[in-house]
Amino acid sequence: MEKFRKKGEKPAVREAAADGELCWGRNPVISLLEVSPERCMKVLLSETMQPHIKTKIISLCCDNGITFQNVAQAALDRLTGGENHQGTAAYLTQAKLWDADELIASLPPAPEPVMVLLCDHVQDPHNLGAMIRSAEAAGASAVLIPKRGGCLPTGTVVKTSAGASLRLPAALTGNVAQTVRKLQEAGLWVTGLDMDGRDTLFREDLPPRSAIVVGAEGNGLGTATAKACDDVRYIPMLGAAGSLNASVAAALAMFEWARSVGKIS
């Protein structure tokens, strides 16, 4: 395994997902070309897309030696299953993820505020993408994803995250409860989100050095994971819905941390 590197250098990696994933949409494709051009295999461009955007994407392809192809709008519609592709899509190789222990070791040292998102077997790639997008926006340092039992960073995640999954450091983990303990050993206070939490999310500020754990859709936090957390909180609600989408709950908690440490007001 590659030796641990300082900030700004490439980390040790491990492979996830399958070759030839497809992502689509103007911002995700541009982010792919700007942030991780080595992962881009080929770019598809609709004949009807906006000329200035098309010119920018072609320029990025040429700068990085990446093949691009003009295709019919209908072809992109078929490839993306009718999703809003905004006239462009790209094939990308496997996600390259940090080694989890090295990623935890690389977190900013105390007393600097730090927040990590830990996903406890999230199943829906759209939810995972939305969580990663919110994590980047709320100032998270990293996201940790179980290697089994949940979705991995695929092209759909790239699209839903608006490219944030290409920028925010991520790692695969083994046992989630064990990962909670590793985060605690690194000096982070671990807060789980669950409808049966012991206290409301908003009663007390989240600590400056925090990890936030979000459970699977429907099942919530695993029993062992909840027991391992330092605290389990719930989000108070009005109305009759009874629960929030997992990605919405994660976003609320992460932005509450950002408010608590003064990153937003």
Summarize the model shown:
The chain has 265 residues and is of the alpha/beta class.
Give me the secondary-structure topology:
Elements: E1 13-16, E2 21-24, H1 26-35, E3 40-46, H2 51-64, E4 67-71, H3 73-79, E5 88-92, E6 95-99, H4 100-105, E7 114-120, H5 125-137, E8 142-146, H6 155-160, H7 164-167, E9 170-173, H8 176-185, E10 189-193, E11 199-200, E12 209-215, H9 223-228, E13 231-234, H10 246-260
Parallel strand pairs: 3-4, 6-9, 7-8, 7-12, 8-9, 10-12, 10-13, 11-13
Antiparallel strand pairs: 1-6, 2-5, 3-5
Helix pairs in contact: 1-2, 5-10
Overview features:
single chain, 265 residues, alpha/beta, 60s Ribosomal Protein L30, Chain: A, Alpha/beta knot, 2 domains, nine-stranded mixed sheet, four-stranded mixed sheet, 10 helices, 13 strands, 24% strand, elongated, disordered N terminus
Describe the protein in words.
The chain has 265 residues and is of the alpha/beta class. It folds into two domains: 16-94, 60s Ribosomal Protein L30, Chain: A (2-Layer Sandwich); 99-260, Alpha/beta knot, CATH 3.40.1280. It is built from ten helices and 13 strands. The protein has helices spanning 26-35, 51-64, 73-79, 100-105, 125-137, 155-160, 164-167, 176-185, 223-228, 246-260, and strands spanning 13-16, 21-24, 40-46, 67-71, 88-92, 95-99, 114-120, 142-146, 170-173, 189-193, 199-200, 209-215, 231-234. Strand 3, helix 2 (51-64) and strand 4 (67-71) form a beta-alpha-beta unit. Helix 1 (26-35) runs parallel beside helix 2 and helix 5 (125-137) packs parallel to helix 10 (246-260). The longest helix is centred in the last third of the chain and has 15 residues, at 246-260. The chain is elongated, with a radius of gyration of 19 Å. The relative contact order is 0.15.
